Amino acid sequence: MTAEGALSDPFRDGIQLFNEEYFFEAHEHFEGMWHLERGQGRAFLQGLIQVCAGFHHFQNGNLIGALDLLRRGPDKMRKYPGRYMGIDAGGLLEKVEAARTQIELIHRGEGDRSKVAFPKIELPGGGA
Question: With 50 as the cut, is the pLDDT of residue 1 above it?
Answer without folding.
Answer: no
